[in-house]
Design brief:
By secondary structure, this protein is mainly alpha-helical. The chain contains 13 helices and six strands. Helix content is about 50%, strand content about 10%. The protein has a two-stranded antiparallel ribbon. Strand 5 and strand 6 form a beta hairpin. Helix 8 packs across helix 12. The longest helix has about 60 residues. One of its GO terms (biological process) is cell wall organization. Keywords: Cell membrane, Cell wall biogenesis/degradation, Coiled coil, Lyase, Membrane, Transmembrane, Transmembrane helix.
Length: about 375
Amino acid sequence: MTDLFNQDSVSAVDARERRTAERRRRARKRAQRRRNIISFIVMIVALGLLVGGGWVLVRPLLNPDSDPTVEVTDYPGPGSGEVEVVIEEGSSGSDMATALVEADVVATRTAFINAYNANPDAAGIQPGTYTLMQQMSAEDAVATMLDPASLTGNRITVPEGWRASQIYERIAQRLEIEVSEVEAAADEVAADYLPDVAGGDMEGWLAASTYNIHPEDTAEDVLQSMIDRTGEMLDSLEVPADDRQDVLIKASIIEAEVIREDERARVALVIENRLDGCSGDGRLGMDSTVAYGLGITLGEALTQERLEADTSYNTRINPGLPPGPIDSPGQLSIEAVLDPAEGQLCYFVSDLETGESLFAETLDEHNDNRAIINERSNGDD
């Protein structure tokens, strides 16, 4: 009984071990199959990523515009369409770049700045309104802006010494309107925009300079920009607000009387000394103010009758300064008023042929200088 039991037990153990071994073998096969499947899947995914990544890299080379994720630093040009871009007075290359990027003329500020710096003529780009294509290459944009034909806005240049009436005519011409419309606009601007010290008179406050006229600008806009320019200039020279009208009056006389720039400070000295009474009557005695009061140019003959005309601008008969400026003075004349020469000069006479002025401290010296000028003129005849 014992031997049979043991034999059966051994057989049972062997059977269990075989079954266990079989299960383990099958489990290993299943595990191997799973590993094979996972490896295959990983290989397929890796191959897909490789192919996809390669296409991402190659596609922009075949068609750069097809991938929106690629940063465009400069357009290839030549561009298309049309857009107006305003370049303000005093704009740097960087300021221009900003305006052009906002209008989509160039792709990036960097592209334009590089093209601007690479072109030795770029500093010659003028302020104004430009008609340009969109999506131009930066190099083409610089070249186009150097061409005066691309400027669509009008420009007004006010020379030193021009009177308000001349400036009104120039504005009317540029805006293609009647002078009467500019005069009406001037009345409104004088009432609402001029500093109180000007007394409502535009004369002298329309700064001599060059201005950009944009297509939408009105006469009021242009006049205000001229007044603003005067204010900015006086601010930069630190002229007190209460002194500005007198400074402009004196500077306008210097502008009208002086031909040579190096004589401005001496004429400014004569004005100060005459106002202080060096001539004994406190009168300036300036022909330029007499002519202004008569509405004639200084070049017209001042007969004795005209010299004695009773106008508020006749500084031969009225002491002190005239009631207002007689033209638009330039900055050099204003600077001369603020920093006149030193000395006792009280008179001067100008040679209209040579532009030279002869200065004197006394009336006798002045009369001698006048004789010299007359002799020169008679000799030329």
